[in-house]
Amino acid sequence: MEEEKKIERLRAILDASAYTVILSGSGMMAECGYMGMKTPEKAYEIEKTYGVSPEDIFTSVYYNNRPAEFFKFYRDEVLQGDVDTSDTFRVAARMEQKGKLKCIITGNIYGYPQKAGCRNVINLHGSIHENICPHCGRKYPLEYIRASKKVPLCEDCSRVIRPQVALFGEMMDSQLMTRATWEIENADTLILLGTTLDSEVFSKYIKYFEGTNLVIIHKEHHHSDSRADLVIWDEPRNIFTKLGY
Hints:
6-stranded parallel β-sheet; elongated; NAD; 245 residues; single chain; 12 helices; 9 strands; alpha/beta; 3-stranded antiparallel β-sheet; metal-binding
């Protein structure tokens, strides 16, 4: 009953909101069926298989100096996250179509919101679907990377193609950061899905929120939850599918 009341409150918040923004965290990868490489279980499995941690192999150092090893890891591990989307994002797409959602900001690189039909999405860490030759600028689809035997090379200039994803330790794209900050500054409702207020990815942006309602929907309790206006401890899809959009 308590959850039903919270869903009613969330529905009322969304109905009254003029500018709603969603922050989609790593918990949404699990909801879509993929265990992120930073989860303890996956990180242990990777280190056991490759002899190095994800933080070591998913870096520009490996990409530049050991491209064969980098792309084997990229194809066998990272691209496994290219799975189906979630009902949460399907509802979000309908909300966007009805003008009830202005933007989704995500740290995931798999395009889950876009697969569901969402259009205004900020991919803070880039996308596996964008791959560019750093020399001539030719663009390549994901399937070209997936089908490469060892190192995917540009067909025009034979340079190593660069997936447009942020590797560990790299600087964030300043334009994307500016866009994300603007969206959060202009939101009167901010919804965190599968993440917390202390998120390594989002905490630096959340501080710019000055709106009316800060909402968190995630499975596990977190000490920072008390700072939100509404918290629902459940999988986001269990909540969004009951909103009526």
